[in-house]
Amino acid sequence: MGRLAHIDSYYAASAHPAPDRPALAGSISCDVCVVGGGIAGCSAALHLAERGYDVVLLEEQRIGWGSSGRSGAQAIHGVAAGQAKLERLIGPTAARAVWEVSVEGLALMRELIARH
Predict the structure, then answer these.
(1) What are the boundaries of each domain within the chain?
(2) Which of 20, 63, 71, 101 lies most in the core, judged by the most C-beta atoms within 10 Å?
(3) How far apart are CA 14 and CA 100, in angstroms?
(4) What predicted TM-score, i.e. pTM, was given to this entire model?
(5) Rg (CA), the chain
(6) What is the pLDDT along the chain (116 residues), one digit of tens a residue?
(7) Cα–Cα distance between 76 and 38 in angstroms, integer?
(8) Distance separating alpha carbons of residues 65 and 7, to the nearest angstrom
């Protein structure tokens, strides 16, 4: 499949150009192969590499080309159901833990943006 352009969006227009990489030909060895270069795949590959793993990231098109490059990219914390409903479903202690993880996720994202 040929490479397709990003959709016309602010994210594509403001992104730093990624270097072209050759298509994978033959076999390659690594500790971990991450399939998909969206937010989750890039994050997984980065964190594994920072911990010393030999990582290969495979993306069919371009980094951020799929849904990660098409969403509203809203970085918000919490859950869609709302904190009160979550507390009723899983209890206040577990709901608070979910809240804290979502806040930590935003902090991690800001730190990664600043670092890279």
Answers:
(1) 1-74, 75-116
(2) 63
(3) 31
(4) 0.70
(5) 18
(6) 555 566 677 777 777 777 778 888 889 999 999 999 988 899 999 999 999 999 999 998 888 777 766 666 567 777 878 889 999 999 999 999 999 998 998 898 889 889 88
(7) 18
(8) 8
